[in-house]
Amino acid sequence: MLSYAVRGLTRRHGVGEHSVLANDGIDLDVRQGEVFGVLGPNGAGKTTLVRQLMGLLRPDAGTITMFGRDVRAEPGVPARLAGYLSQGDLALAELPVATAVTTTARMRGLSRGGARAACGSVLDELGLTAVAGRPLARLSGGQRRLACVATALVGDRPVLILDEPTTGLDPLARRAVWAALQRRREATGTTVVLITHNVLEAESVLDRVAVLEAGRVIACDTPGQLKASVSGDVRLDLAWRHDPPADDPTVAMLARLATTSGRRWTVRLAPAEARDALGRLTTGAAFAALDDFSLATPSLEDVYLTLGGVSRDLERT
Amino acid sequence: MTVVPDAHDLSAARRLPGLERGSPTQSTPGSAATGSAVPGSAVPGVPAAGVALPGQAAAAEVAAGARPDGGVALPRIPSATPFPAAFGAVFRGQLARSKVGRIPLLFVASFQSIGILVLLRGILDVHDTTAAGQVVAGSTVLVVAFVALNLLAQRFGALRAAGALDYYLTLPVPPAAVVLGTAASYAAFAAPGTLITAVFGSLLYGLSLSGLWLLLPVVVLAGVCLSGLGAAVGLLAPRPELATIAGQLGMSVVLFLGVIPADRLPEVGRIARDALPSTYAVDALSEAFQPGVDWAMVVANLAVCAAVGIAALAVAVLALRRVGTS
């Protein structure tokens, strides 16, 4: 069963000359129990898409069905089935963390005791127990975001729609969120729709990803398939401690092909070539100058750029 | 030696949240290719068929049904949260906010009214209990106007501008519970200030405190009326600055037409006074300070407050629904 089936979704913001086509004929299927990602740069139409999935915006054209129910005809259905995390948190800013989570749980229909218990367990899961009594506005940016994630998770909805849940989180907190999503998926088959402009997040947690560019889906597949589809090349990243010997033939060959950023080089090569080049570097004279290296298959950023994406604001870390 | 992992292995490795590419600890040249795959330890990509039903606290409306082909059951659709529980949650949440940021504002609200009482004490004939009663009642209702009209209009205006109403609109609660819960909590913020103002005013002007119990229905109904107007203004104003201006202007009008006794206003002022809903609350409360209370008048005045409040709250609820389906 599909959690969401989206067909021909089109939505324009504004009127007249200044109007922007935020979503342009989007087709998507989100399967039940998968972690589905929407990756794209700022302004690609990601938030417009999920706000329509939540019934917050009416599409100009196209259809959205959620578990077979027409969201346009029944805009109240997503609120009952999905926990939603928006980018803003003004509604909760002055509330103590535990109160924010407990009242949200109550509004999702949990009993008073059930809400308290659910709050305790989700705060524990995300490592927020120590700050449970503090208002969100007095937390660090990362903890504040984490508290908002807690409000989206509480009440165990069958679907979670999270608009950039890990923005501003440190790596530890980010992993806590990813683990919480995996746990719900494995325990109860929760479907997760996750917006991100972070490539690492997309590659780490998503089962499938739709790449959005200027309101259109330019690709949709598993991260591995997407990467395999665009290029057989691998990426060799080199960081030099000091300038490498220019007369070394391998260094000279790589220098011609590399895009450089200071002493960091990125070279795209066929796998065999990359393996040979790295072998020669690590056994030759250039080894002394080499500080760090990595060899990787193309990232989703490469996919995005290869498919015609023009923005450079995707995050890598 | 250096190994180029194939795309599948690497993507599997990347699924491990702990594994990040090119970390310094892995960077000794020649040690191994960083970002190497860890086969067999990937988190499963696709869930198995036959996923368990999500455990829902709320009752189900649509019965689950297993698909004959896949075996994955449809989730139960949780029912919408009933009004009383939703109202209570919104109300308590807003009251919790008051502990953080609202208390200084409560003082401001009372001090403003007390200042007006002290100011007018110098120019009013204290033996005119009708006029004195109106001044005290007007100052008391002003506290409600400051909190329920002005602050609530600002709050809803700011929430709407920031897109923060999405939080409420994506919870399975009736919009009326959000508007009424918030309005009720703002009216409740005003309650202590009204008591302080009414008692202080009665003592200052030598009025009887025996009818002061009337403060309770007056504050409740003035609260309904003014918070309804505040919510409607905040939710309908196209820009948050307009909501702020409208809220403050509204409060000024409540101040001007409520505090100045009706018989001292010019004709046009009296017409405006009759058109302003809050003055009915002022008139009802000022009766409490008079020797002989005209109960029919009190009830009629409070009924006007209630009617306007209900109408304004209905408008606010419609405005919130409109925000939710733009």
Explain what this protein looks like in three dimensions:
The complex is a heterodimer of chains A (about 325) and B (about 325). Chain A is of the alpha/beta class. Chain A folds into two domains: about 1-230, 3-Layer(aba) Sandwich (Rossmann fold), CATH 3.40.50; about 235-295, Alpha-Beta Plaits. In chain A, about 35% of the residues lie in helices and about 25% in strands. Chain A has eleven helices and 14 strands. In chain A, the strands form three sheets. In chain A, strands 6-7-8-3-9-10 form a six-stranded mixed sheet, sandwiched between helices. In chain A, strand 7, helix 6 and strand 8 form a beta-alpha-beta unit. In chain A, helix 3 packs across helix 4 (about 110-125), helix 3 packs parallel to helix 5 (about 140-155) and helix 8 (about 225-230) crosses helix 11 (about 300-305). The two termini of chain A are about 35 Å apart. The relative contact order of chain A is 0.14. By secondary structure, chain B is mostly helical. In chain B, helix 2 (about 85-120) packs across helix 3 and helix 6 packs antiparallel against helix 7. Chain B has a domain at about 120-325. Helix content of chain B is about 65%, strand content about 0%. Classes of the chains: A alpha/beta (about 325), B mainly alpha (about 325).
Low-confidence stretches of chain A: none
Name the assembly state. Answer: heterodimer
Strand content of chain A: 25-35%
Largest sheet of chain A: 6 strands, mixed
Q: Report the helical percentage of chain A.
A: 25-40%
Q: For the residues shown, what is the average pLDDT of chain B?
A: 77
- Which second-level CATH architecture of the largest domain in chain A applies? 3-Layer(aba) Sandwich
C-alpha end-to-end distance of chain A: 34 Å
Separate helix tally of chain B:
10
Total strand segments of chain B: 0
The sequence of SSEs of chain A as H and E is: EEEHEEHEHHHEHEHEEHEHEEHEH
> Strand pairing plus helix content of chain B: what structural class?
mainly alpha
End-to-end Cα distance of chain B: 59 Å
Instruction: Please report the two chains with the greatest interface, counting residues with C-beta closer than 8 angstroms to the partner's C-beta.
Output: A-B, 94 and 79 residues
Taking strands numbered 1, 2, ... along the chain, how are they ordered across the largest sheet of chain A?
Answer: 6-7-8-3-9-10
